[in-house]
Amino acid sequence: MIQLSKRLGAVANLAGEARVVADVGTDHGYIPVYLISSGKAEKAIAMDVNEGPLLRAKEHIRQFHLEAQIETRRSDGLIGLQPKEAEVLVIAGMGGALMMRILDEGKDAAHAAKRLVLQPQSELLSFRRYLMEHGYQITEEDMVYEDGKFYSMMAARWAKDGTRNAYVEDDVWGEWAKIGPSSLKYGALLIARRHPVLRQYLEYQRAQKQKILKCLGENARQDVSKRKEQILLELSEIDGLLGLWQT
To answer: Which residue, of 1, 89, 151, 239, is most buried by count of CB atoms within 10 Å of its CB?
Structure first.
C-alpha cells in the first residue's frame, strides 16, 4: 500500500469511507490511490486543472493497477464534477483564497456532497469565516506538524437549513462552539480537544511574537506603539488559550 506523508495521512483519515471520492488538485494522485487500496472507497475521481499532475497521477494509478477504479479528469476546481457524482470531496494543499473560489464556482457539487475534506495552506481565519457565512458546518478538525510546518485540516458539510454556525452544535465543544476570533483563527474543535499539535503551534507563535516585541522595543527611530499594542493583545490571546492545557 502507498505510504502517505503525515499531512496527507491526516487528510485521508478525515475522508473516512465512501462509495466515490473526488480529489480536487490531485497532483500525484496519492489520496485516491490510498483510499482505494485501503478499501475505504470503491471508486475515485482524480481531478486537476493541469495535464502534468494528471499524467503523474496516471502513473501511480497504473503502478497500483487501479485503472478500473480511479478515473482521472481535467477540471478547474469542481467545474467538471456533477452534483452527487461523489459523496466525499477532498480539496487540499492550496491557498485559502483559491479554495474559496473553488467552492464558490462549484457550489452545486459542494452542497450535494456528504463531506468536504479541506486543508487550506493559508488564510485559515478567513477560510473558516467563509464556511460559516456560506452555510457550511465544520464537523471535524485535525492538525499535524511535518518538516517544520504546521498544517490544519477540517471536514465540513453544507447545512441545508442555512445555519450561520460554523461548527456542528454539540455540548462536547462547549463555549468554543460559539463563533469568536479565537475559534475561527485556531479551530474550535482543536481548542476544545486540547489538541497537542495546536499547543505546539501556539507555543511557537508566542515565541515568534515575543521576538517581534523585543525588536520593536529596540527600535527608537519610529513610533511602533500601535504595533506593540497589537502584539501584546495577540500574546494575551495565546497565553489565555495555552492556559486551557493547564486545566
So the answer is: 89
Three-state DSSP at 120 gives: strand
Cell of 185: 483563527
Entry pTM? 0.90
Q: Round to whole Å and give the CA distance between 104 and 154.
A: 18
Long-range contacts of 227-235 (CB under 8 A, 24+ apart): 234/205, 234/209, 235/206, 235/209, 235/210
At a CB cut-off of 8 Å and minimum separation 6, what does 122 contact? 95, 96, 97
| Opening angle at CA 33, ends 29 and 35, nearest 5 | 120
Which residue in 62, 3, 55, 49 sits closest to 23, CA to CA? 49
- pLDDT tens column, 203-228: 999 999 999 988 887 765 667 788 88
Q: What is d(CA 183, CA 138) in angstroms, rounded to the nearest whole number? A: 12
SS3 150: strand
Q: Is 119 left (phi over 0), alpha (psi -120 to 50) or beta?
A: beta
